[in-house]
Design goal:
The structure holds 2 protein chains of 2 kinds. Chain A is mainly β. Chain A is built from no helices and 11 strands. In chain A, a hairpin with a 6-residue loop joins β4 and β5. The radius of gyration of chain A is 13 Å and the shape is globular. Classes of the chains: A mainly beta, B mainly beta. The interface between A and B is medium-sized, with 23 and 18 residues.
């Protein structure tokens, strides 16, 4: 079966750095996406990785290792507005997105 | 540009009632999707469409039907609602390439009593 694992919840302090991990086992791999979802709202796109390595976009970076079936999202200089759920999704061999259950990130002052 | 819109935003049904959820997009995207999101679970694909007049089943299609008569609209129907269909429903669109991100509507919160 296809499976994407993320921690259920994480807590971090305003101004700090946090790393959210995602491991996957899917039938085929055509890229990995990270989305942010604030409570009661729709998911919004953060990043896309298809090759191994780090993609940096402002305060957010995403890393991929295809051989390990592993990705992480790194958030720097945390702000209160970063309190949200972070969803990892993999595009499989059928080009469908397989979604993790999401990681709820709580930011404390 | 409105992007992706969904109607209604909230709905309460009794078991056995029917309803239709409407998704509309002005992004000219070919691909459209219906997902449901339940606590502790990832988004699950119900049905999708790769273009006007086409539909296909996703991971959890039972109890739902869809239609894509116009490119900009994708309808999700529940013929006989069940409590297990209580969920938040999201519509999404993309351009159909593997690197394209999906754009989501604001969601419909459905409760079936």
């Amino acid at each position: 079966g296809q499976n994407i694992d993320q921690p259920t919840e994480m807590t971090a302090t305003e101004g700090a750095i946090v790393q959210i991990n995602c491991t996957y086992q899917t039938s085929g791999f055509n890229g990995l996406f990270w989305y942010q979802q604030h409570a009661g709202e729709a998911p919004t796109f953060l990043s896309y990785n298809v090759l191994d390595g780090l993609e940096e976009k402002g305060r957010f970076s995403s890393f991929l290792s295809r051989s390990k079936g592993y990705s992480y999202l790194l958030l720097k200089e945390l702000q209160m507005k970063d309190s949200a759920s972070y969803l990892c999704a993999v595009r499989d061999s059928n080009y469908q997105l397989i979604w993790g259950a999401g990681t709820k990130l709580i930011i404390k002052p | 540009n409105a992007g992706v819109t969904q109607t209604p935003k909230f709905r309460v049904l009794k078991t056995g009632q029917s309803m239709t959820l409407l998704c509309a997009q002005d992004m000219n995207h070919e691909y459209m999707y219906w997902y449901r999101q339940d606590p502790g679970m990832g988004l699950r694909l119900i049905h999708y469409s790769v273009g006007e007049g086409t539909t296909a089943k996703g991971e959890v299609p039972d109890g739902y039907n869809v239609s894509r008569l116009k490119k900009q609209n994708f309808l999700l129907g529940l013929e006989s609602a069940a409590p297990s269909q209580t969920s938040v429903y999201f519509c999404a669109t993309d351009e159909g390439r593997e690197y394209n991100e999906q754009f989501f509507g604001p969601g419909t919160r459905l409760t079936v009593l």
